[in-house]
């Protein structure tokens, strides 16, 4: 009996240890480092590390580059989150219409970007976006339109980088939505069809309400991912031009690993954690309020 009671803890222990080692401890370390002036010299000689209190946070709040990165991240999330959720849900609804082998092949096709290395993806998209010989500008020239500076225009670059992330981010969410769709009892849909409800009516009145928890999960996880946006701007643009595609995560990487200002980067990490936690709590609270009504 005692072994049976301890079994659940044994199963979750590996995941809990991984979370502790790669989640909780690094965040606690970043919090501690954020109150010091730790840099490359401090790594070589810990005696050189000084406690500076909230000085890093004051400098961060007065840093225009940080606010630009924060605004860029907000713009990326504003475009990316609704796009990923909407596209993933729409594609999942289409792929769930049939179990034909063709649709099963399509499911695998849509999941490919999620398991493809970001470097390989970015190389392909880099060639597509090339201003001189890229495929996109070639197609525009066939239509009589001028070339677009996809990765060098400060305005266009945000949409260009976001498009790659949207394309990569739909695959896993499609799988989540498909699993949720398969869990809906078919009796509900069959009964509604017998009552004369159209497919659109069944989707709006039955399917979407039953997917509300899956939609909430995908929205929350997607928002967290976009607020941590790093891979695409790092590989495609290095944050350029003129910081137009620098996200907060990329800014922290540049300050920590390029400039060696680990204390300053730690302060930014704590601020980013607060922002992500705030948005997550707002989304969960909004979902609970809707459920009560």
Descriptive overview:
The protein has 293 residues and is mostly helical. The protein has one domain (52-292): MetI-like (MetI-like fold, Orthogonal Bundle), CATH 1.10.3720. Helices cover 75% and strands 0% of the residues. It is built from 14 helices and no strands. It has helices at 2-33, 40-44, 55-61, 64-95, 101-111, 118-129, 135-142, 156-182, 186-194, 199-210, 212-227, 231-236, 248-258, 262-292. The mean pLDDT is 88.
Q: What's the overall geometry?
A: globular
Share of β-strand residues: under 5%
Low-confidence residue ranges: none
Structural Rg: 23 Å
Summed up, the helix count is: 14
State the CATH class.
Mainly Alpha
Q: What structural class do you assign from the helix and strand content?
A: mainly alpha
Q: What's the total number of strands?
A: 0
Describe this protein with a few key phrases.
293 residues; mainly alpha; MetI-like fold; 0% strand
Topology:
Blueprint lengths: L1 H32 L6 H5 L10 H7 L2 H32 L5 H11 L6 H12 L5 H8 L13 H27 L3 H9 L4 H12 L1 H16 L3 H6 L11 H11 L3 H31 L1
Helix pairs in contact: 1-14, 3-14, 4-8, 4-11, 4-13, 8-11, 9-10, 11-14, 13-14
Question: Summarize this, please?
Answer:
The protein has 293 residues and is mainly α.
């Amino acid at each position: 009996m005692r072994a049976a009671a301890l079994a659940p803890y044994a199963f979750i222990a590996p995941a809990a240890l991984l979370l502790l080692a790669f989640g909780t401890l690094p965040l606690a370390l970043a919090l501690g480092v954020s109150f010091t002036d730790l840099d490359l010299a401090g790594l070589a000689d810990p005696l050189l590390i000084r406690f500076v209190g909230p000085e890093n946070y004051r400098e961060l709040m007065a840093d225009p580059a940080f606010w630009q990165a924060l605004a860029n991240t907000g713009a990326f999330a504003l475009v990316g989150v609704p796009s990923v959720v909407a596209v993933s849900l729409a594609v999942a609804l289409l792929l769930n219409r049939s179990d034909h082998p063709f649709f099963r092949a399509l499911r695998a096709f849509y999941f490919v970007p999620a398991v493809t290395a970001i470097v390989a993806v970015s190389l392909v998209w880099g060639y597509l976006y090339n201003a001189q010989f890229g495929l996109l500008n070639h197609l525009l020239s066939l239509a009589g339109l001028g070339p677009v500076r996809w990765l060098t225009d400060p305005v266009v670059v945000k949409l260009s980088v976001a498009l790659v992330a949207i394309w990569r981010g739909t695959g896993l969410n499609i799988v989540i939505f498909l699993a949720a769709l398969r869990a809906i009892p078919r009796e509900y849909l069959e009964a509604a069809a017998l009552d004369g409800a159209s497919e659109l009516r069944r989707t709006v009145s039955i399917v979407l309400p039953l997917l509300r928890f899956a939609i909430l999960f995908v929205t929350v996880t997607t928002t967290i991912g976009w607020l941590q946006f790093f891979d695409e701007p790092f590989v495609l643009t290095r944050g350029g031009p003129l910081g137009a595609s620098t996200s907060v995560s990329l800014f922290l990487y540049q300050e920590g690993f390029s400039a060696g200002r680990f204390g300053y980067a730690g302060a930014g990490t704590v601020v980013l954690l607060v922002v992500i936690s705030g948005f997550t709590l707002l989304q969960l609270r909004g979902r609970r309020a809707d459920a009560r009504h």
